[in-house]
Amino acid sequence: MGEFATVERAGPMSLVQDLGRTGQRHLGVSSGGSLDRHAAGWANRLLRNSPRDALLEVAMGSFALRFSHATTFALAGAECNWRLDGRPVANWAAHRADRGSLLEAEVARSGVRSYVALGGGILTEPVWGSRATTVGERIGGIDGRPLKSGDRLPYEPEAETLLAGAPREYIRQYGGQISLRLVPSNQFGLFASAHQQTLLAQTYRVSPHSDRMGVRLSGAPMTGVPGNLVSEAVAPGAVQVPSDGQPIVLMADCQTIGGYPKIGHVYSVDLDLLAQARPGDTVTFSIGTLDAAQEALRQQRAFFEGPVDNGVEPAGAGE
Amino acid sequence: MLRITDSSDESLTLYLSEDYDEQTLACIERLTALVRRDMGDWVTDVVPSYCSVTVFYDLLRCDHSEVYRRLEHCAERALQEAGAETAAPQSRLVELPVYYGKEVAPDLHRVAEFAGITPDEVIAMHAAGEYRVYALGFRPGFAFMGKTPEPLRLPRLDTPRPRVPAGAVAIAGAQAAVYPDSCPGGWNLIGRCPVKLFDRSSNPPEVLLAVGDRVRFVPVAREEFEQLGGSLDG
User: Fold this and answer.
1) Which residues of chain B lie closer than 8 angstroms to A28, CB-CB?
2) Tell me, what's the pLDDT at A314?
3) B72 burial type by CB count under 10 A (0-12 exposed, 13-18 middle, 19+ buried)
4) What is the pLDDT of residues B8-24, one digit of tens each?
5) pLDDT, tens only, A215-241
6) Which chain B positions have a beta carbon within 8 Å of A235's beta carbon?
7) What is the DSSP letter of B195?
8) Does B7 touch chain A (CB under 8 A)?
9) Closest Cα partner for A163 from A46, A10, A68?
10) By the 8 A CB rule, do B194 and B97 touch?
11) Chain A with chain B: Cβ pairs closer than 8 A
């Protein structure tokens, strides 16, 4: 194995990701993994990769990658005017790159996170069953840190690959209002009905102090929320409300336990949209049910883990 | 008080009590073991904490109501066993050497002032008791221990330090811990432990402490601390 994709421009936060880690939460190791599973799932699917294959999550674009060897690659997620050797290449589509060619992204125009999958996946050394990078824990990817220029990402070029574009109905446009469906659970009953109404009635803005651990929302605060509780396990999707009354939606890199009261959890599939939200974007909540949340997640997972032939159009058909 | 709630699309949390103590901890240890043994391989993670156990499951392979039913069953058995006072699983005792020298104990004096005693008395008090591990989290290998003796329960710092060194021995309120890794942190630092609590280079990850362990802090001199591999670096 001697093929590498070399990072020539790393951008503000580019990470090797996959579906994350399981089985180690009790040791304090967070799950991590791609923040937008829909876009990451499509990038791998377009190459007939396994949904578990590692790929790149490029936040805000400004990224360039040179291939040492001919390969296939696929793009999905945030729009950032991808170019291959200077020629525009379509997002939500798979492409072929020659030996030595350069893939470049401009600053993201809409959305935050773009996914770049390579045929056969990125083959950095797995750590505890996953290649996902958790920067806060310094685990996975390359030395547990964001990529920097000069980093080499090993891959094994695969000849047999389906080149295709995602069907139109799966292609997402980012920006605008995000609507999150909330399953009222955890300590929902501890919150006063006034708090519940505040959460459901208003339009929040995404705070700039948001990251892969949690998206902080700002709006009219819920006043007099329940105080801190004895710490318990927390998971991505949980909506914490600390004493300042501003909700935090936990994301993939969140800690494994926490003590803030939680008003419920957001549908897992809705986190894909939140992963693409920029500071200032607006967010509203509506009440959903666990059954509906699980059904949506089950469908998403079954789709990406299922056979690829359904729902992938031949190359060029979607453009 | 048994209560089960969904805590995410893929997890259920079972609460055993409102507050934590040794009795609850024993029950949580039993329940965690039962869940790991009996619930099925569609369980992906089992996370015990102070008063609760959270079970993560693969929803492509099982049904929420099935997990709920089995978890409830496991909890009833754990409570029965606790009630029958069958021999509790013997908790492990871990002794952690601690160097309490002032170059590694920036908050020792504040704790002493708070308690109205001398720094040496703080050390004696911190090292006299036996602690239990109630939860792991915050960082890989970070064990939340309790309970710190009443007079030493100084709250955490208003502003966390940007960097706490690996091995820092810390207290905050009723809680005690040793930082497994350097990271930002807001607890009061009163010493340094030379023992590695978490090895990121091993596979699977090696973590010294587990929920339920009994822990004693054993004062050591600077020479011994360094012989054991401890580092005085800030």
Assistant:
1) 136-142, 207
2) 47
3) middle
4) 999 999 999 988 888 89
5) 999 999 999 999 888 899 999 999 999
6) 7-8, 10-11, 54, 56
7) S
8) yes
9) A46
10) yes
11) 130
Enter the tokens of residue B9. 């699309």
Q: How far is A68 from chain B (nearest CA, A)?
A: 30
Quick check: pTM over 0.90?
Answer: yes
What angle separates helix A290-305 from helix B64-83, to the nearest 10 degrees? 110
> Tell me, what's the ipTM?
0.94
User: Domain coordinates of chain A in residue numbers?
Assistant: 4-166, 178-304
CATH number for B3-83: choose from 3.40.50.970, 3.30.1360.40, 3.30.420.40, 3.40.50.300.
3.30.1360.40
Q: Give the residue with greater pLDDT, A153 vs B88.
A: A153
Residue in A22, A233, A237 nearest the CB of B54: A233
Question: For residue A229, what pLDDT is reported?
Answer: 85
From the CA of A166, how many Å to the nearest CA of chain B?
Answer: 24
Q: Which two tokens stand for residue A191?
A: 């919150």
CB-based contact A183 B9, cutoff 8 Å: yes
Structure tokens at A111: 């959305």
Record: contact A24-B45, CB cut-off 8 A: yes
Is the CB of B65 inside 8 Å of chain A's CB atoms? Answer: no
CATH 2.60.40.10 fits A178-304, yes or no: no
With 60 as the cut, is the pLDDT of residue A316 above it?
no
pLDDT digits (tens, 9 = 90+) for B192-204: 999 999 988 888 8
Q: Give the residue on B whose Cα is nearest the Cα of A297.
A: B9
A291 φψ region: left (φ > 0), alpha (ψ -120 to 50), beta (else): alpha
Q: Would strands A61-67 and A102-107 be described as parallel, antiparallel, or unpaired? A: antiparallel
Taking the C-alpha atoms of residue B195 and residue A5, their distance in angstroms, rounded to an integer, is 39
Q: Which fold has domain B93-227?
A: Cyclophilin (2.40.100)
CA distance A257 to A65: 37
- Strands of B52-57's sheet in order across: B3-8, B11-15, B52-57, B43-48
Selection from A123, A239, A248 nearest residue A187 by Cα: A239
CB of A132 closer than 8 Å to CB of A141: yes
Helix (H) or strand (E) holding B79: helix B64-83
Among A37, A180, A257, A272, which would you mutate to test the B interface (most chain B Cβ atoms within 10 Å of its Cβ)?
A257
Of B7, B52, B60, the CB nearest to A301: B60
Contact A28 B141 (CB under 8 A): yes
Per the structure block, which two tokens stand in for A100? 């030595």
Q: Chain A contacts of B158, Cβ < 8 Å?
A: none
Chain A hits for B205, Cβ within 8 Å: 24, 27, 29, 128
The residue of chain A nearest to residue B209, with distances taken between CA atoms, is A27
CB half-sphere exposure, A150, CA atoms < 13 A: 0
Q: Could you say which of A23, A139, A185 has the minimum Cβ distance to residue B44? A: A23
CA–CA separation, B5 and A261 (whole Å): 14
For residue A239, how many C-alpha atoms fall within 13 Å in the half-sphere facing its CB?
30
A26:B9 CB<8 A: no
* AA letter at B153: R
